[in-house]
């Protein structure tokens, strides 16, 4: 994703030369990319930041060294990144201004905590619960919800793309998985048993009689973006493997993005009572 591999170490200034964004501070928001760069480690501990893993999510303290943290600038960008259609890439500060790529994440939720600031005074801190964005696609193929109208599944999927809610860390991972399943269920229902890439029927039926299709994250193939209705498709296993491993996979993925966009545009127009 973005030409980076998890565990790759890169000089921070080279990272910004490639993607833009502020070269100081913990949260960078490039102006010309749908992307946020977040940095952990380094000197953060002296300012009261206590980042780390807890119950399967990465607890990331917002920016603001003195006084209560507010949802402005980078903190607002993190909270709203899914709704703003921006990917979130996390890096760990290393020695000599190098950073290590930790992967793409999604803000599942956030909470307030009492934590000392850089002057040692207790203050209200914002802690974001970052869940790894790479969800095993095979785990989402069971997402179809029988008997629920497509319009309701679409509403749920779109609601999953709003700003992250306030919640405790204990439910953050479940919140992220629930979001992914809402979008996956909608994609499978939208496909109605027909591959959204090759337009052929599912190659076989499940043991319960439902057509078998797989959920494919189109944006994630290229940029690590979050789950969104217009970024997820239901495809047959052959197209899925072709997109990921075929010589023309990138082209097929771009074509699929256009197919889904046209579908979503028609559905939006229909929901708004417009002629399509």
UniProtKB/TrEMBL annotation:
GO molecular function, one term: endonuclease activity
Domain ScoMcrA-like SRA: 7-133
A Pfam family: HNH
Keyword Nuclease: yes
Designated name of the protein: HNH endonuclease
HNH domain ranges (all copies): 195-244
Entry keyword annotation includes Nuclease: yes
Organism: Belnapia arida
Alphabetical UniProt keywords: Endonuclease, Hydrolase, Nuclease
């Amino acid at each position: 994703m973005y030409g980076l591999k998890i565990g790759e170490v890169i000089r921070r200034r080279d990272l910004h030369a490639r993607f833009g964004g502020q070269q100081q501070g913990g949260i960078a928001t490039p102006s010309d990319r749908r992307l946020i760069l977040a940095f952990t480690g380094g000197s953060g501990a002296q300012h009261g930041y206590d980042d780390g893993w807890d119950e399967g999510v990465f607890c990331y303290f917002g920016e603001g060294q003195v006084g209560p943290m507010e949802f402005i600038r980078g903190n607002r960008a993190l909270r709203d990144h899914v709704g703003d259609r921006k990917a979130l890439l996390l890096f760990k500060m290393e020695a000599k201004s190098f950073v290590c790529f930790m992967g793409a994440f999604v803000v599942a939720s956030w909470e307030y905590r009492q934590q000392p600031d850089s002057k040692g005074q207790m203050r209200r801190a914002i802690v974001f619960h970052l869940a790894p964005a790479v969800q095993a696609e095979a785990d989402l193929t069971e997402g179809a919800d029988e008997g629920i109208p497509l319009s309701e599944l679409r509403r749920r999927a779109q609601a999953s793309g709003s700003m992250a809610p306030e919640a405790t860390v204990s439910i953050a991972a479940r919140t992220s998985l629930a979001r992914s399943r809402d979008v996956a269920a909608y994609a499978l229902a939208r496909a109605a048993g027909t591959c959204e890439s090759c337009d052929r029927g599912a190659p076989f039926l499940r043991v319960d009689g439902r057509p078998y299709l797989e959920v494919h994250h189109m944006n994630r193939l290229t940029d690590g973006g979050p789950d969104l209705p217009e970024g997820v498709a239901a495809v047959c296993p052959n197209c899925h493997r072709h997109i990921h491993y075929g010589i023309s996979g990138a082209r097929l993925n771009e074509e699929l993005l256009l197919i889904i966009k046209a579908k979503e545009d028609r559905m939006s127009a229909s929901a708004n009572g417009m002629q399509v």
